[in-house]
Amino acid sequence: MNTHPYLRAYMAGIVVPTLVLLLALTGFVIARFVYQVPMPIERVIVFPMALVPNLFGLWNMLYLWLRPHRHLPIGLHGALLSFVLAPCGFALANALGFVTLGSRGILCVEQYVIPYQYVAFVFAIGLIVYYLAWKYLVGFFNQLLGIA
Fold this sequence. Notes:
By secondary structure, the protein is mainly alpha-helical. It is 72% helix and 7% strand. The chain has one domain (5-144). The chain contains 5 helices and 3 strands.
């Protein structure tokens, strides 16, 4: 099954974030419309729904292309994606007025201040989650589609 390996890599890459984003969207909708949480869902969910699955697919294609040249473990390769997504997500959220930088931390929705040490902690947790997701889930789908 050596036909279209990059297409198969793209498809294997988009499975995990697509399923996770469906769960996240369900949580946002329940929080917004059932519990009346004043969170602008439309402004928050657009970036992840549009960009993250496509970047996962493209990142997996890059992994497949790089494999003969330079072999990185797939988990480490996936964790590196956080260094692309985090700045892009922050830049978009800042441009939309959802977050701004302050002297004590990041100001979200002009109400909540998240201290920088919490931001660093969450980013580190995100690196671990991405590492594990890529190692076990995306790696599994790559094997399933015969491109591992």
